[in-house]
Specification:
This protein has about 150 residues and is an alpha+beta fold. Helix content is about 35%, strand content about 20%. It has helices at about 30-40, 70-85, 110-115, 120, 130-140; strands at about 10-15, 45-50, 55-60, 100-105. Strands 2-3-1-4 form a 4-stranded antiparallel β-sheet, with helices on both faces. Strand 2 and strand 3 form a beta hairpin. Helix 1 (about 30-40) packs across helix 2. The longest helix is centred in the middle third of the chain and has 18 residues, at about 70-85. The protein is globular and about 55 Å long.
């Protein structure tokens, strides 16, 4: 083939270190715009971003030459530094190490966007821990629950 053609959609989930509820409604939209800027500057695309005070969901598309782990490292490092430079939280803001990433088919894009957009409503019924464990199970990812979160023993 003369060219590379791809469409790779990834639903990424990551949480605040210690499971703390530090993302405020007052500045969360600024954070989302900042993260979208990071993604756009790496020539990738955000389709949806939203979350709760303790975690974020992002649906993005990536090009084949994008290493997701590098993109996530940049998102987390840059956004942490930005949050700390703005003094949005008392003490030092950090994301938990690691993240969840789940492939999404073209036919499910609208469903995933709706899911991400409705995080507040969704979390009236289910905790983040339950939500994340359900993701791991539905994607048939082997895991030991004691190693999933850094704040749960």
């Amino acid at each position: 083939m003369a060219n590379t053609f791809s469409q790779l959609y990834i639903h990424v989930v990551f949480t605040v270190k210690g499971g703390e509820s530090l993302i405020s409604k007052i500045w969360k939209e600024e954070l989302y715009k900042y993260i979208c800027g990071i993604v756009t500057n790496t020539n990738q695309k955000v389709y949806a971003i939203n979350g709760m005070p303790d975690h974020l969901h992002i649906l993005l598309s990536i090009k084949p030459n994008c290493l997701l782990s590098d993109l996530m490292r940049d998102i987390k490092a840059s956004s942490s530094k930005w949050i700390n430079s703005k003094n949005f939280v008392k003490g030092k803001f950090q994301w938990q190490e690691g993240f969840g990433s789940f492939s999404v088919s073209q036919s499910q894009i609208d469903k995933v966007i709706l899911y991400i957009d409705n995080q507040e409503l969704h979390h009236q019924k289910i905790s983040f821990k339950q939500e994340y464990i359900e993701f791991l199970r539905s994607y048939k990812i082997d895991f030991d629950e004691k190693y999933v979160f850094d704040w749960i023993q």
